[in-house]
Amino acid sequence: MSSDSDIPRQDELARERLIDLAAEFYDQFAAGEVPSMQIPTRTKSNIEYDEEQGVWVYGDRHSTRSANTVGGAQKLLKAIYVIDFLQNQLQENRSSTLRELYYLSESWDLDAAQFNSQDESNGLIEDLEIVSHVKREDFHMRPEESGAKVMGPLLIREQTNRGERQIHCQDDVGQGGYQIPNNVDTIEFLDHDADFVMAVETGGMRDRLVENGFDEEYNTIVVHLGGQPARATRRLTKRLHDELDLPVTVFTDGDPWSYRIFGSISYGSIKSAHLSEYLATPEARFIGIQPSDIVEYDLPTDPLSDSDVNALQSELEDPRFQTDYWREQIELQLDIDKKAEQQALASRGLDFVTDTYLPERLEDMGIL
Amino acid sequence: MTSYQSELGGGGNVAEELAKGQRAISIAEFFEKNKHMLGFDSGARGLVTAVKEAVDNALDATEEAGLLPDIYVEIAEAGDYYRLVIEDNGPGITKEQIPKVFGKLLYGSRFHAREQSRGQQGIGISAAVLYSQLTSGKPAKITSKTQGEEQAQYFELIIDTDSNEPEISVEDTTTWERPHGTRIELEMEANMRARQQLHDYVKHTAVVNPHARIEFREPSEHLKYERATDQMPAETTEIRPHPHGVELGTLIKMLGATDSYSVSGFLQSEFTRVGQKTADSVVDNFRDRHYGREMAWSPPASHEDADIEAAITDAVNGKGQEATSAFAGAVADAVATRDRLAHHELRAVVEKAADDAEVDSGVTFGDTVRENAVDAAWREIVVGREADCFRLVDEATTSRKDDAAVEALARRVATGFTGNDDARDRITHETLSNYVERAAERTKERDDVSFGETARENVVESFWAVARTVPDDAPSVKETEGDRDTASELLEAMRETDILAPPTDCLAPITDELVEAGLRKEYDADFFAAATRDAEVHGGDPFIVEAGIAYGGDLPAEGQVDVLRFANRVPLVYQRGACASTDVVKRINWRNYGLDQPGGSGMPNGPAVLMIHVASTNVPFTSESKDAIANVPNIEDEIELALREAAREMKRYLNKRRSMEKRQRKQNVIADILPRMADKLSEVTERDQLNVGDSLARIMNNVLVEREVEDGHVKLVVRNFSDTNADPDITDIVGVDPGQPEDAQVIEMDGEWFVKWSPTVAAGETAVLEYDVSDDATFDVSVEGIEDAKLTVNA
């Protein structure tokens, strides 16, 4: 999985991989065997820490998709149809979205090959990524939602369908910032003036930082996550860290779901653990809201719901959160039984976050 | 009945007044007023009952004569009435008997016989005659011809309801095409509202009598039920009553009628399953009840206070010292050898010692002397009574009771014996129970130690066990008959004695095979099962329960299952809800057996027919109209076991069917998907077309038969992907002469060669069947012996 910019060559490679996969099934049939493929089990219990890369990747447990059962045979049939579709798409240099793939299956001649839900087609694309070792971006498959937005002292060059564009992410963009493309590997970093990267969970907080001029004052590249971050956002964050050697910080709400957002940036997500080394930024650091901040700044809170408590408890068992820092914070939160949003900081005034909270935290963390 | 005493009303003339209105009523007259009791309560019902009675008679008659029944039933409209005709091919009835059989109620050969038969009371057919004459006023028309006769007898008759005697209006001979048989024609007020019941009755009769051919014609339909087997039901033999099955009145009547003098002889000659040994046991029990037992005590040891020898010596006067001492010594020695001794046993000992002493000494020991000696010795023996009682009570009670309590109880039981008028300590079981009861109550009162129900019973039984049956002769038959209490004691003795179950050759079960054949004949179902239980006994009457199940096929899948009920091969049509068999069906959890049962109890739903047959010398019905089997626990249990036995088979079938269906569905889907996968793969990889047969067979664990042909060399490859041996019969039909292939049979027919192999292919193995043909040949292979769902043919 390189970020080789020799696009046609890369497409040809992806296509070859797909045809090789089809040939494997072909050979199984020819030998009178039952066609099957092996896929790592994609659950929390089957991820392990890769010491070398510092990220979480899939473990040894595999499940076998085989034509032995009706369900297995249908899955394989769909996989083969998708392989055919993808190799055609690559050959014709087209691209499509995951949702388009789902609807496109309706046009296939065989009913049994059609998808029942988009989850099914998304899952199948993930399967193919894993067994072919080709990223879905290289299959020319895009997610429906666009990537998030970036604001900060950064100059890039993007390969678009309409030619190259040079964009400065403060000077050339509006209040909304620069829109990250689906395939981040079409971007080249030309220059920057940044000290660190700050990934922000909510749009409201991002706008607050921009409005208050935080990016300019502290030379920060503010990346808007927009909930659970898309692959492109995570990939960009990683590249900013790796290529520009910038520290990465993450600023979210103070609840269990937000810790998972941090987790997927820092350690890699369970669903895409096969791409962890490509997407995860193990050096990313958590700013807050920390449960201890709730106590320290006496923030307005909501009580934890049952599902919050379950999620926290499940995080205590999640291999990615097995550090002293996280255990301490999660246990504290369970103890105080409270959660707080980023916007809760506004209870101290609109400038509190940019004038007091963030500078204090960043200083504590040794970034400022 | 209300009884008016003559004192009522202050004078005698009331009774006399009443007596004028009192007279005997004839049974026929009684019936006239109580038609419902015999199933003639409505026009619709009357028709069903009449058909039923006539058909039952026809079946009984033909079977008894060893003839395969051929029965014709016709119902036709005749003006305001319905005409019912029933013909059979039975042996016919003699001229003298015809009027009695049809024209007299309660006339028949069956009532006194203990043998399985359809009819029993001799009411049925004559009741139908009576019903027809009462409703239409027309006589019954009867034609009957016995084997070998030229002419048939023809009668027209009615029943005189006053005298219960036939009244013949026409008596003639006629010609009839049947070689032998009986025909009865009745006209009655009726309607066809019970058409369904009629059809059910005839159809069910056909199910349960697969050896019969039945033709049924009614105003709107004409049905024929053909014979399914030539096998007649087993012939039944009549049996004598079983001792466990008689009631007191019957017993007294039998006692009055027997030629035997002794009860033992009576038992052996009048009852089934009673030989000398069983009779002895019954008589022993009878004597125990009639006379009671004599308590046997442990004799005192010599060092104890009692001294039998001295006591006898004292009691015997003037017999000389030598003879006296020899006599006393002999008695004492004999007693000392005994563990326990009852009064009559002591008497025997004394008699023997006295006889011996007379022989040895020449001195005569008269009755008085002997009597005195017995009394003297007995007084010494009962000295140890209290100690003996203690031992018995102690053995019978748990070790948790302390000695003082046991001693107190024992002392009081012993007091019971002391207070008994009978010096011989003769007691009935009841008296003994009273002793113990009283002793236990006093012990509770005085010593505050209670002996529970079980403890008391145990004590009673431990005493009763050591008590001896007395040697007195049992009462004779005459004495027993003369005294109701004595007869009752005999009955109890009979019931208490273990006696072998009655023989079952008096029963003719249909047999599970024919139950199945009967169902198969009348129902177009996918699956049939049947079970015949071993004979059991209820109240002295043996019975056998059979059950059958038909499932699937054309049976309606909606609604409740049909329950076919039969008693002695007769379908039960009415009162389904009151029948023991219905209760049993409802209490079984049919979900366990793969039938739908809303709420987990009650009538199951689904495409099934349940059949229940109870055969017995006496089927207990809830009423005279014989519509519902009574709730006898023994019978219910057997019905349940029979149903469950058949249902287990159904469950196995359904499970297998479901798994085969599932397998077939899977095979259908996979057989559809695999070739499409293969096509797509060839397209994507730009390689040759694939053959997916091997993979498919492997997925389905099937047996795969594939053909390979190369230069006139033909190979049929049989791969067994299953985990069991496969024994297919493979036939290849070849268009040219294949020569003589190895291990194959070749038959030529009309220019085609049938080449047949029967290989055994072990699990996971492959067999290759080869032959050569000279030129282009046509092939057509067929594989038998492997279920379709487990077979993949690619040849």
Automatic annotation (TrEMBL), chain A:
The active site is at residue 103. Mg(2+) binds at residues 201, 253. It holds the Pfam family Topo_VI_alpha. Its EC number is 5.6.2.2. It is an enzyme of class 5 (isomerase). Keywords: ATP-binding, DNA-binding, Isomerase, Magnesium, Metal-binding, Nucleotide-binding, Topoisomerase. GO terms for biological process: DNA replication; DNA topological change. Residues 75-140 form the Spo11/DNA topoisomerase VI subunit A N-terminal domain. Its cofactor is Mg(2+). One of its GO terms (molecular function) is DNA binding. Residues 144-193 form the Type II DNA topoisomerase VI subunit A all-beta domain. It catalyses: ATP-dependent breakage, passage and rejoining of double-stranded DNA. Residues 196-362 form the Topoisomerase 6 subunit A/Spo11 TOPRIM domain. InterPro entries: Spo11/TopoVI_A, Spo11/TopoVI_A_N, Spo11/TopoVI_A_sf, Topo_VI_alpha, TopoVI_A, TOPRIM_Topo6A/Spo11, WH-like_DNA-bd_sf. Belongs to the TOP6A family. Relaxes both positive and negative superturns and exhibits a strong decatenase activity. HAMAP family: Top6A. Homodimer. Heterotetramer of two Top6A and two Top6B chains. This is Type 2 DNA topoisomerase 6 subunit A. It comes from Halomarina rubra.
TrEMBL record, chain B:
Its EC number is 5.6.2.2. It holds the Pfam family Top6b_C. ATP binds at residues 57, 88, 109-110, 119-126, 626. Residues 636-663 form a coiled coil. One of its GO terms (biological process) is DNA replication. PANTHER family: DNA TOPOISOMERASE 6 SUBUNIT B (PTHR48444:SF1). Homodimer. Heterotetramer of two Top6A and two Top6B chains. This is Type 2 DNA topoisomerase 6 subunit B. It comes from Halomarina rubra. The gene is top6B.
